[in-house]
Amino acid sequence: MEMIIDFPGGDRVDAHFGPFDVATDQPAPGYMPKDPTPFLVFLSSIGTCAGIYIVGFCKQRGIPYEDIRIRQRVSSSPINGLVENIELEIQVPPDFPEKYYEALIRSADQCKVKKSLEHPPKFKVFTSVA
Fold first, then answer.
1. Facing residues of 127 across strands?
2. Whether 63 contacts 97, CB under 8 Å
3. Domain positions in the chain
4. Residue range 74-82: average pLDDT?
5. Residues 34-54 pLDDT 10s
6. What phi and psi values does residue 81 have, to the nearest 5 degrees?
7. Closest by alpha carbon to 57, among 98, 110, 93?
8. Residue 73, SS3?
9. How far apart are CA 16 and CA 81, in angstroms?
10. Parallel/antiparallel/unpaired status of strands 69-76 and 83-91
11. What span, in angstroms and rounded, lies between the C-alpha atoms of 119 and 112?
C-alpha cells in the first residue's frame, strides 16, 4: 500500500490513499485546529479498529451492536509524553448476552492496529528528489 502525504498550508498535513483523504492539523497558540492532530488520528485508530472486530463478531451471531460503545482511555508518561497504557472498556447494553462478554474481548483483541503495536514494524526514512 502506498500513501501520499502532502502539506496543504499552515500546519496541516494530509494523507491520501485509494479514494480516501485524511486531514490533520496541529494546534498553535491562539489557533483552533480544523482537524485532529496526526497523533489523535493514530490513537483513534486503536479503538475504531477494535470496534470493527466487535461489529463483525456481533453480525456473525445476529446480535445488535448499535448500542455498544468503546471507552478508550490513554495514559501518557509525564516525563516524555509517550503513551504508557491504553485501556479499552467495551460498554454493552443491559440486554447484551453475558455469555458473550469474554468472546467480545477476544474479538477486540484481534485488532490489526493493536497487533501492529505489539509487534512494531521497522522504519526506514530517507529523502529522494521528486
1. none
2. yes
3. 37-118
4. 96
5. 899 999 999 999 999 999 999
6. 80, 0
7. 110
8. strand
9. 28
10. antiparallel
11. 10
76: β partners: 83
pLDDT of res. 10: 87
Residue 23, C-alpha cell as written in the block = 486531514
- Stretch (H or E) spanning 38: helix 38-61
Instruction: Please give the single-letter amino acid code of residue 119.
Output: H
Chain centre to alpha carbon of residue 98: 26
Whether residue 25 is predicted with pLDDT greater than 90 in this model: the reply is yes
pTM: 0.88
Asked if 50 and 108 count as a contact pair (C-beta separation under 8 A), the reply is yes
Query: d(Cα 110, Cα 103) in Å, to the nearest integer?
Result: 11
Confirm if 27 and 37 have CB atoms less than 8 A apart. Answer: yes
Assigned architecture for domain 37-118: 2-Layer Sandwich (3.30)
